[in-house]
Design goal:
CATH topology of the largest domain: Rossmann fold
Distance between the termini: 38 Å
Structural class: alpha+beta
Low-confidence stretches: 271-276
CATH superfamily of the largest domain: P-loop containing nucleotide triphosphate hydrolases
Strand order of the largest sheet: 6-7-8-3-9-10
Radius of gyration: 24 Å
Strand content: 25-35%
CATH architecture of the largest domain: 3-Layer(aba) Sandwich
CATH class of the largest domain: Alpha Beta
Bound molecules: adenosine-5'-triphosphate
Number of domains: 2
Order of helices and strands: EEEHEEEHHHEHEHEEHHEEEHEEEEEEE
Shape: globular
Mean pLDDT: 89
Helix content: 25-40%
């Protein structure tokens, strides 16, 4: 069942389009991430859904009801902002109870709900602590408890983890996701961090200049991006300009020819957006395999030299200089213990992992 539906939602500030004809259906109980670079319209779109911003045109409907002109305080959505906006002079319990107080929920029902939420966010002993004496992660949990206190049907999160350091941020991503799944609450989260979106989302909405560039499950988008913009934004990738000549091969920047699967050639000749244009080869680093000797000289084996190694213990990335371009290959230190900077190497690009995508258009 689809709960939230956006139809042709557009927001213009003066002459500039912050959000440009966005159509979207958010399924019930799912966590959807709006992902994209700074200024692509994520926050504006979230604010329109929240009712904090009025769309220039288009409609927002929830559970079949048109909300386009309904003010924020009548939408019944929970929201957590980047700043968290907790009340510093109040205790944890008072903060969590705040939306219940506004709704004039009876005092004992408020207390029971607050106790339940404190258990849920694993801060049962902190009810009377002032906000100023909480850590960043604890504040984060209180902000979420406050947002869900009155059991909203939709939870909106605007970069809620951006103030946290990297380690805590990763832990909170898992915590929020598990909580969201336990409660089954439909959630939309804005982030510009693709790893965060991949960790948490059922579906990612990739935005580019106010428009939706692609919507899909995280791994589908990662494996089958529709454009260079999306490929580049989601995960690490080798993106190389290539030339097609109508045969079963494509030419790399150095002139070397490699085989790609027929379906990929078809995509490349029509362009993924349906028009003939410049084409790029996308191959993810984990799909590039390295070997020290040529071995079986397949058509997709390229000679190169190891230019740099980023070994962080759990994973290893090697930059390989080939004639006319560089490639990144990802592996683990355990798999490639003998890799050294400067050594000659052979990189294999399996045909099935070579994707052809439309090149980014000039703006
Ligand atoms: P960030 O990740 O930096 O928060 P974002 O993707 O959330 O960016 P928005 O904040 O939605 O982007 O902004 C989209 C565009 O609309 C930007 O070009 C921004 O400058 C513009 N914009 C946003 N709010 C206003 C406003 N109140 N008045 C004029 N322009 C605005």
């Amino acid at each position: 069942m689809t709960h939230l539906t956006l139809q042709a939602v557009t927001k213009r500030f003066h002459t500039a389009y912050a959000v440009d004809h966005v159509d979207l259906a958010v399924p019930d109980g799912k966590l959807v991430c709006f992902l994209g670079p700074s200024g692509c319209g994520k926050t504006t779109l979230l604010r329109i859904i929240a009712g904090l911003e009025t769309a220039t045109s288009g409609t927002v409907a929830f559970a079949g009801r048109d909300l386009t002109r309904v003010p924020a305080n009548q939408r019944d959505f929970g929201m957590v902002f980047q700043s968290l906006a907790l009340f510093p002079h109040m205790t944890v319990a008072q903060n969590i109870a705040y939306p219940l107080r506004l709704r004039r929920v009876a005092k004992d029902a408020q207390a029971a709900r607050v106790a339940e939420l404190l258990e849920l966010i694993q801060l049962p002993h902190m009810a009377d602590r002032p906000i100023s004496r909480l850590s960043g992660g604890q504040r984060q949990r209180v902000a979420i408890a406050r947002a869900i206190a009155s059991s909203p049907k939709l939870l909106l999160l605007d970069e809620p983890l951006s103030a946290l350091d990297a380690k805590l941020r990763e832990a909170m991503q898992v915590e929020i996701r598990l909580l969201q799944q336990r409660l089954g609450i439909t959630t939309i989260m804005v982030t510009h961090d693709q790893r965060e979106a991949m960790t948490m989302a059922d579906e990612i909405v990739v935005m580019e200049k106010g428009r939706i560039a692609q919507v899909g499950k995280p791994l589908d988008i990662y494996r089958n991006p529709v454009s260079e913009f999306v490929a580049d934004f989601i995960g690490l990738g080798n993106i190389l300009p290539v030339t097609l000549d109508g045969t079963d091969r494509i030419a790399l920047p150095g002139g070397q020819q490699i085989l790609v699967d027929a379906v990929q050639r078809a995509t490349g000749t029509t362009g993924t957006t349906g028009t003939t244009g410049d084409v790029r080869l996308l191959i993810r680093p984990e799909d590039v395999s390295m070997r020290a000797v040529m071995g079986n000289p397949g058509p997709n084996v390229l000679a190169g030299k190891v230019a740099f190694i980023r070994d962080v213990g759990s994973s290893l990335e090697a930059t390989i200089e080939c004639a006319g371009f560089t490639l990144t290959a990802a592996t683990t230190p355990r798999e490639t213990p003998d890799l050294r900077v400067g050594m000659p190497i052979f990189a294999e690009l399996p045909p099935h992992a070579c994707k052809l995508i439309a090149a980014r258009t000039a703006h």
